[in-house]
Every structure is written in C-alpha cells, then in structure tokens.
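seq as requested:
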Amino acid sequence: MEEKKTIQARDVLFIGLAFFATYFGAGNLIFPPMLGLQSGDQWGLGMIGMLASGVGLPILALLVLGQCGSVQKISDHVNKRFFNLFIGMIMLVCCCVSIPRTAAVGIEMGLQGVWSDAPYFPAVIVYFLIAFLFAKDRGSVLDKVGKFLTPVMTVILIVLVIKGAVDPIGTPGQATVDNAMLNSFLGGYSTGDVLVSFLMAAVFFNTIKDKGYHGAQMRKVNLGAGLIAALCLCIVYGGLLFMGACVSSQYSTDIGNADLLLAIIRSSGGQVAIYGLCLSVVLACLTTAIGQVTAVADFFETATHGKLPYKILVMVVPVITAIVASFGLDTIVALTSPWFSFAYPIALVLMILGVFEKVIPNDGAFKGATYLTVVFAFADLPAQYGVHIAALDAILNKIPLYSAGFGWIVPAVVGFVAGLLLYARKGKSAQAV
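struct tokens:
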C-alpha cells in the first residue's frame, strides 16, 4: 500500500494563494468600488451581497467540484457530450472576455496609471508574451504564480485596503439603489468567478495531485486552499467596497469603474499608493491571465485528444486574446459581458446538482434542470444585449423572480421535477416490458 504523504502547510498556503491570484483579476478590481459607491450608507448590506456571490459561490463551486472529482463527473449525468460543449463555450468566452479584459485593465489602469503615454498595443503584446512564458510549462504554472507573483500582489492590496478601512476618506452618503444587497449580489456575477471555478478546476486539482495528494487528502488540501483564497478575497473585496462607499457623497455613479478606483486610492494614500495599486493591478490581471491561458490550452488539448497539443495552443491562445484585447476595456465589456449572464445560471445549476449528486434518484433530474436552464439562458440573451422581442419579453416577464435577476430558478426547478418523474416512469415501463 502506498504511504500517504503528510499534508504540508506550506503547500496549502501557496496553492491557496495561487487560487486567490487566479480568481482575483480584472473584474475583482473594478467592480467592488462601484458597488460600494451605489450602496452608500447601506454598504454593510452591499458587502454581504457582494461576498455571497463574489466569494461564497465560486469557493462553494470549487469545493463541490473537488468533492465530486471533476466537472465532467457532474455533467455526464446530463449528457456525455455536455461537458465538452459547455466547458468549451466557457473557454471561448474566456478567450473573448476574461483574458482580454485582464490585459485591458492591467494596461489601462496599471501601466498607464503611472505612465500615461505608454503605447497600448505594444503593451498588450508584452503582457501576453509574459503570460506565455509563465504558462508554457504546464506543470509549474501555479507554483510560479503562488510563490512569486501572488505574495507581492497580496501584501500591496491588503495594505491598501487596511489603510482605507482604518482611515476612511469620507462618509458614506445615501444609497443610489433600492436594494443594496441584491444589487451587489447581482454585481458579483460580473467578476465571472463561478465560471473560473469550472474552467480552472482541472488545473487546480492536477496541481494538488502533482504535489502528491490524492483521494481524501486531495479534497482536504483543496478545502484548505479554498478557504485561504476565500479569506484573501473577502479582505480585498470588502475593503474595496467600503472605500467605494466612503466616497459616495463625492462622486456620481456615472464615473467610470477605473476612474473611480484610481480616485479612491489617490485620495487614500497619494501618489505612492497609486504606484502600489498600479503594480498590484498588473500582477492581479497577469496571474489570472496566466492561469486561464493554461486552462484553455489544457482543455482543448484534451478535447481534441492531443491533436492540438498544449505547446501549440499555449502560443495560439495569447495571440487570439491579444487581438481581442486591442479593442480596449469598454468595448470588451459592452460586447461580451452578456455571455456571463448566459453561462452563469447553467454553471450555478450544475453546482447545485453536484451538491446533491449522491441523493438525486436518477439522471432525468440532471437533464431536465440543465436543459430548461439552457433554454432560459438562450431566451434571455437578446435582452442582455438590449434587444427586446415583444413576444419573448412577455414570456420572460411572467417567470417568477425574473425581474430580480433570478429567472433561471423556476425553469431549473420545473425541469428537475419533470425530468425526475419522466425518467422514473421510463424506468418502470422498461421493467414492465
């Protein structure tokens, strides 16, 4: 019998920091301050909503996937091909949204924050060249990120948010939204971190296994690393949201996300703090890009059974994402963010099904819940782009909770029950024959 390796606290720490760095990218920097600005004197409720969706859901997804073993183990209950279709779609969204957005934020807020005349597109090329150099060796990607890049970023960010919390730069004004908790919860969707759990799961788990941890030990390390990532995310998210709330009497919600963050940090710590922020912005975005480039290349190598090798894909992906990033942050967010709203309900339904995988009686429940959620997500996609079709809008508006942003819940529940009953009846009919 193979001797179990003793779990090393150092391994858990660095893996947890790597998890944090992969989650903490572009959206995590630019959205919390704006949610704080909107929450104003209701910043406490806003923080609960933001942490629930921005930290709780992604980490829960990571732990559920770790307990189940993989994303595919859950998705196979739906259809054997569903894994490649859904995760492949997430990977494409990642190439068109998440990874380019890290470059846009890293350059516009990071590099150009201290060097306003920095040429944008050449900087994009250098950015993705660095991402490639880190990602080209798949086996050591998270080690490099967790041991070298993340500690510097983490220390800078924590110092900035502690400074903002201990010495507030203003007094929160009146909230500009009716329900700060709900607004911040829905705003947390924009970070994309539940999708990060799904697209990075294989890379995360393989990293833990490469350290010599398997089975129950792998799950324990995953739990410990997930909690470390959650703690870091809570500190930074909470601090940024509170700092945004503190200037809610000074700035209108019309201000841009990047401009707001820079204004807050400048007011809090002056030019020195701006330099620190800009460095942490570049590192936060770069670490996320490195992890996601690795995940995309790894997935498509597996999906094509090695016909597209990792060493080729890890060069192609940065080229594609660099082209998309050349359009700039605002264009990327406007054109591609609706796909987060499309993919999120599906990922959340799979996560919930994964929680109860062992007690769900048959696969019909998985199929019904997932398929109806997919139908709902497609039906809602035009509205996410501002295209309103009268007949479609009339149907969607009749779905309970749709106006609150949770229209996927009823279709998922109806599909779950219908699939469960139909599959059970199908089984009885087969036995009767």
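The first helix runs from residue 9 to 23.
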